[in-house]
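Why does residue order matter? Because the sequence determines the fold. Keep that principle in mind as you read this record.
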Amino acid sequence: MNRTLNEPARGIRIHCGLPKTFWVYAVSTVSYLFNRGPSVPMGFKIPEEVWTGKELKYSHLRTFGCNAYAHVDPEKRDKLDTKAIKFYFIGYGSDMFGYRFWDDRNKKILRHCDVTFDENVLYKDREQKIQETTKQVGVELELLKSTPKDGTVETQQTPETVVEEPEVEQVTPEQEKSMDDEMRSLDKNNTWILTELPIGKRALVNKWVFRIKAEPDGKKWFKARLVVKRYSQRKGSSMKEINSLKASLSSEFEMKDLGAVKQIFGMRISRDRSAGTLNLSQEQYVEKVLDRFRVNDAKPRTCSKRPRVVALALPNLQLQGTISPSLANLSFLRELNLENIFFHGDIPYGLGHLPHLRVIDVQNNQLKGNIPTSLFQHWRVQVISLAFNKLSGEMWQGPWYVPELRILNLRNNSLKGIIPPSIGNATKLLNFSLFGNRGNIPKEIGNLSQLAFLNLAVNQLTGFIPSSLFNVSSLLAIALGLNNLSGPLVLDEGNIVSNLESLSISRNQISGHIPSNICQLTELKILSISFNDITGEIPKNIDCLSKLKEFSIGYNPTDGTIPSSLGNISTLQYVYCVSNRLEGPIPPELGKLSNLIQLDFEENYIKGQIPKAIFNISSLKLIALTLNKLSGRIPTSTGLHLPNLEELHLTGNALEGEIPAHITNVTKLKYLGLADNFFSGSIPTNWGNLRDLRLLFLHINQLTSEHELPFFHSLADCRMLEYLDVGNNPLNSILPNSVGNLSSTIKFFEISDAHINGLIPPGIGNVSGLTTLVFQRNNLMGNIPPAIEGEVPTDIGGLKAIVELDLSSNHFSGMLPITLGDLQNLKILNLSNNSFSGPIPLSFASLISLEILDLSVNALSGTIPRSLEELLYLKAINVSFNDLEGEIPNGGVFANSTLQSFLGNKDLCGMHKLEVPSCPITNSGEQSKSKELVLKIVIPVLTSSSLIFFLVSIWIMKQKKKGKSKNVEKFWEIKTHQLISYHEIQRATNYFDGSNLLGVGSSGSVYKGTLSDGTIVAVKVLDLENEEVCKRFDAESKVMRNVRHRNLVPVISTCFSDCIRAFVLQFMPNGSLENWLYKEESHLNLIQRISIMLDVAMAIEYLHHGHNSPIVHCDLKPANILLDEDMVAHVGDFGISKILAVSKSMAHTETLGTLGYMAPEYGSEAIVSTSGDVYSCGIMLMEVLTKRRPTDEEICNENLDLRKWITQSFPGSMMDVVDDNFFPEEEQITSKSEICIDSVIQLALECTKETPESRINMKDVVTSLNKIKITYLGTRI
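Structure:
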């Protein structure tokens, strides 16, 4: 579901306090309001208002979750019983009376229509109110006839449980006789019940109401109830005089008997839901019945001198069967309304030959087949509404003759074919709505001189948008979104007489520029052209559209700056310029837009400071500036003048300074995203004012806090909070007990890589709604709190909702709690890089939802439980680097596992493909002893284990840098390691087409691809025939799961199957460092080279020192350094990297790196350590300065290596060996430049010393390069 329905639905449900059970009803309600209520594209009007110009009432609209009081039928209750039952409104049906309610007493969802929404008028006259609000079909037809230009036919009906009586003050003799007869019958039988007239009711004349009675043999009868009441109360009358009679007459008859009734004053056939389905199967009698009455209002009426049916309106009765062809015999029929009756079958062809037919409305049924061509050759028909059916075939391609047609609604069918040009003959057409067709938009639509609303959205239309559309002066709204239209948007040259208010062409393939003469659309209020291929700049004179309310150009390659004239459009309410190529500053003039509600410039190249005036626009509800290049500070007054602000998105910029203290004064704030900036200072401690806050993202900054993080105490007052991330900040503190006071609504809680020490407070178990808990890469220690594993009081409930739990890279110890097996919803469990000991609990086999299990780099012992084979959804398991022994199971997830999942254990054996020793075959005596030994070990362990553990976490690696999708960031950060199928990779790379090939290496190929959401990626496909390469895949996958840094290549996903092993990586448009060094057309100056090597050094420093277990890259070289659009370097290719155990500083390897970049100890002793990466970094420093490879033929011919060759020239003659392209020809080489180069070479020599112990570490490298860069830049200034 997209954000348009998702967010409002969630909002109305949460606002009324109803549980998630009512999600679908909330979505349905939002959809109803969008379709039936006023909308932004219509200028806050609905289509009827647009083409009629009349203001409509919306009194039927109700607040989701409001109280409703259903009246109890007086004949079904005693006098002292309650007269109404309290329900809760949860949605609309197919028509305005189709309300749905929640019966909290009986825990049922029902549809009841005899309701009052105001408790104060419960006992007032409901009939009077109903009579005032009920529309009369007969009157509407006369109105339509007398005012052909309006063409409006209202179809609102009386609620089906309300019986409308005719209003008369004087009864006719026939009525008097009927009532007297019924009163006499009171003394003759016991089928009549005398009741008092309800308070506030008027006594009215008699009425028949019919119900179905089903016999045991399956035969259905109609049961009639005659309701008899005296006429209206008169002044001075006593209660006895006005007592009414309500009679229940149990007579049974068939439908044909109804036709024998001579006269019916007012009648409504309504489906009684408790009595089954009304089936009009006796078709031969239908005409007789309908010939006797009019289903419209309650007043007595006949059809003319002779009984004639002129209107058949039975909407929302949910009748069964097909539309009878015999209806075509009602030759005087003007209106046929069978909306929402669940009819199936075809539309009878003969309906199009009814000479007087004006309206045919059969929408919301299950009709199929073709549309009768006769409907398009009917000279009187005014309304054809066939929407929401299963009609197929093509629209009539022959000549149209519908001179009176005003509304044509064919949406949501399965029609195919093109829009016929002859539609231009329907010259009185006001509204044309179509769905699911193909072909071009015929230029003949420009002949529809009275057309007010054109809705051709969500089709498969191709070709250009006819420029003639903009010459239809009556046209108010054009909706062409979600098609395949192409070409430029062209307005006819010359004067355009246009009243167009809404132009929506989003999600097409429109190209070219915004038309220069768009200013001729002077009445335009909505301009929506997002998701196209529109280039060029926003017109500087955009303020010529002085009535514009919505300006939406997002997701186009539109460039240039934001025109300051945009600030002159005082009516502007919505500015949506997301993912364009806009640059430059935000004009201060935008601060003048006093009516602005949403300002969205996300994912652009906007720089400079945010104008202070923006934060003074009191009408603003959303400010979204994520993923730009904004800098400076947020004004300290931010929050003082934003009483309506609900969302503030500033993630992914270069903002600095403290978070303004007044930000917590924005009491309506729901989303605050300040992540991935340079904010510093303390995290505010007065969040309690933000009662509606749902998402708070402060991660990846330099924020600090006092001891025990006091801001958590105020966050406990944010009872709507759902998502909280304060990770990647130097908090240097312990988690306080107040964490347990966070709202029960919180779902996502991350505080990773924040230097958190000590224990996890037991109170974490109080946060019962938590589904994701991420505490990875901290210094937490001790056992897992009992609260997390489920041992909490029953009134708290624990964290039973947990789905993802990640406690990796901490100092946890002790045994794994067996109660982890109680977490039935857990999908991802990552406890790697800790100090857990003891066996893997057998209870893990109860984790029925588990998909990923990572227990690597611990001290676990014993065997791998065979019961883990039974976990159906388990896709990946990693138990490497423990002390496990025994046989590796071969079923379930183990059948597709690789050696990388089991490396570093004591004595595992099993399948040959895992390259572990085969398990020895033991005799029965040995097996018996073995079983006895297992029992002696396992049983004491299981019986002595206490219920200790329940925790939550997340396998979600969120995007921490620019270039990621905005839509996900607004909910939470993008997940890395998304699931992307092989089919999606094929589609993204155009089935690995050669035109998308970026390069070929020894391990495979790299392709450029585009995912379905538009994300451009690089797909690294490994060579499956190379066994060594396949092993590297597992190693690289493992490493990338545990790392996240701005200078590492982000892995979006991995794809593993029998036919492919691939990495989906963030695309780096500037390629590799190797290309920039050795391609003739590429040149890097000195400062660029130093900056790139500083980026590389920071990435390697993070791998070495940012984890409890250091990670060694093992293959640093220019080909593995990729450059993004800003020339920021990212280290990639972790195929032969190693994770060192916590207690070890080095390891051995059988896989060597690249010749020339390897440290000496790699080749001689196969020793892997962090010092090896330092050596490779030093070689690269030399290479980027000299543009000489370490395997340079000239150097090797002299029996030298790169280090020795440079040493010969250092320090006196370095300028003779450095790259000639360092400096432009016009720039002189200064002594300062030489000092800078000498400093880098000196650093490189320190990195490449012979023995590992004598080399500096990467922290020293980063410090030195930073100092060199700052000194060099300072001298140039």
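The chain is about 20% helix and 20% strand.
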